[in-house]
Specification:
Elements: H1 29-39, H2 107-126, H3 135-141, H4 148-164, H5 169-179, H6 185-200, H7 204-217, H8 220-233, H9 244-250, H10 256-269, H11 278-285, H12 291-304, H13 312-318, H14 324-334, H15 339-343, H16 346-355, H17 361-375, H18 390-399, H19 405-418, H20 428-445
Helix pairs in contact: 2-4, 4-5, 4-6, 5-6, 5-7, 6-8, 7-8, 7-9, 8-10, 9-10, 10-11, 10-12, 11-12, 12-14, 13-14, 14-17, 16-17, 16-18, 17-19, 17-20, 18-19, 19-20
Length: 447
């Protein structure tokens, strides 16, 4: 299903901000897609398709229509070949060659198409070339336009510029901060999306002062956005730890979402940076009305592992959450509290056993993994805790009958860890699969 051994169980179980950027990273791409389908969310690529001739209604009063650049000489208005490199075999005509972004183009073709798309959008918006030294300032002025469509396009173009011109990232960043405060939610979302490539291209000498100032002096929306980006990129920014002081300052913000996102950033940089009372802040969000917010809170508790033991009552409630996504994260967190703590609290084992019978197979799988992780070990000789828990063994034996291979294989793995002698009772086909998936599951259990 969603959490496959080859993708879901190799994933990072860190959690991205659930506010505006993307879904937390604790899910595989399949799980994210399933979440989006279930929730009816809409997604859009960073780079919009190249504008093409269409019968658009005339702009309303006060709206400015984007001006399209002229087609090169010798091409008709319908030709989509040379100008944007969409037609790979364009011969100054209207042929139907495959688009460079439809799967048959080489990497160079796709890159050339994307660059020409960027050029088209910048020319349409600002009548300026991408390599013009003033291009950022010219595009940035469009964020003050009354027409929200122009502001949306401007923030998207800024994101493109930061991707293709890394040296402009420091110049682009302040404009994105400004766009975070736009009254149009699509401009705000576009600014968040554009911040990822922008921050990724910042060097420490520019990035630390820019982000620190926003975290220390910005408003809640600005602090939340920057903290979310830091949380998302903590393992990629070599200078992320230099933001710890500013992040601690941002914790003084009165907005609960801001506090939670800042805690997330600190946890992903180094859990030891978390100030006292951080878990208490996270616990409050486990009672949020939004399933996404609850998922974020449980996912962060899972990332904290043994540091989250004081949240045990909230986690025991979370395994019964009405939505499968928060349930999954709560079960994951219970299994991450530490072996000694889990064995000392029978209610945790009972909750994990119950979760093997969950209506969602992703929850079943993580429950089986958590049981195997805490009640068994491929490294410890002699009698294992799982052998003294017939209820857990029975639950896993039942789960091995699942029609979902990922679930049955994880259950078999957990069963053998808890009672190695039961390996001989596995069906031949399942035993063969177990040999293949055990390394991935062992790696997952070690985290």
């Amino acid at each position: 299903m969603r959490l496959s051994v080859h993708s879901g169980l190799r994933m990072s179980f860190s959690v991205l901000s659930a506010l505006v950027l993307v879904l937390p990273l604790v899910l595989s791409s399949e799980a994210q897609a399933d979440w989006l389908v279930r929730e009816g969310a809409e997604t859009a690529p960073l780079v919009a398709p190249t504008p093409q001739p269409s019968a658009e209604p005339a702009p309303q009063a006060g709206e400015e229509k984007l001006a399209a650049p002229q087609q090169p000489a010798g091409h008709s208005a319908k030709c989509r070949g040379c100008a944007q490199r969409q037609k790979r075999t364009c011969k100054k005509g209207e042929g139907n060659a495959t688009s460079a972004v439809e799967g048959n183009a080489t990497g160079d073709d796709a890159a050339e198409f994307m660059e020409s798309t960027m050029k088209f959008r910048i020319q349409s918006l600002a009548q300026v070339e991408p390599n013009d030294p003033k291009v950022v300032a010219i595009v940035g002025t469009k964020l003050a336009e009354e027409n929200p469509k122009l502001r949306r396009e401007a923030v998207g173009v800024l994101g493109l510029l930061s991707s293709y011109y890394p040296n402009k990232a420091a110049e682009i960043f302040p404009y994105l901060i400004k766009a975070l405060n736009d009254s149009d939610p699509k401009v705000h979302a576009g600014a968040l999306k554009a911040m990822l490539p922008t921050v990724a291209h910042l060097q420490a000498d520019a990035g630390v002062p820019l982000l620190s100032e926003t975290l220390s002096k910005g408003n809640s929306a600005e602090r939340t956005a920057v903290a979310a980006v830091v949380a998302n990129m903590a393992d990629k920014l070599s200078w992320a730890s230099q933001l710890s002081g500013a992040l601690r300052t941002a914790l003084e913000d009165q907005n609960q979402d801001t506090k939670l996102t800042v805690i997330m950033a600190l946890a992903f940089i180094d859990p030891d940076l978390l100030p006292e009372g951080s878990v208490e802040i996270i616990k409050k969000n486990t009672h949020a009305k939004s399933a996404g917010s609850r998922f974020q809170a449980y996912g962060l508790l899972a990332a904290l592992g043994p540091k989250a033991v004081e949240a045990l009552p909230e986690l025991l409630v979370g395994v019964n959450d009405p939505h499968y996504i928060p349930r999954w994260a709560a079960v994951r967190a219970l299994g991450s509290l530490g072996r000694d703590f889990v064995l000392a609290h029978p209610e945790i084992i009972e909750a994990l056993i119950k979760s093997t019978g969950d209506t969602d197979t992703a929850v079943q799988q993580i429950a089986a993994l958590s049981l195997g992780k805490n009640l068994g070990s491929s490294l410890l000789p002699g009698v294992l805790p799982g052998e003294d828990n017939p209820a857990a063994l029975e639950a896993l034996q039942k789960l091995m009958q699942s029609k979902q291979p990922n679930v049955s294989e994880t259950a078999a793995w957990a069963l053998v860890r808890m009672s190695p002698k039961l390996k001989a009772t596995l069906p031949d086909k399942l035993f063969a699969r177990l040999l293949e998936v055990t390394p991935a599951l062992d790696e997952m259990a070690a985290k």
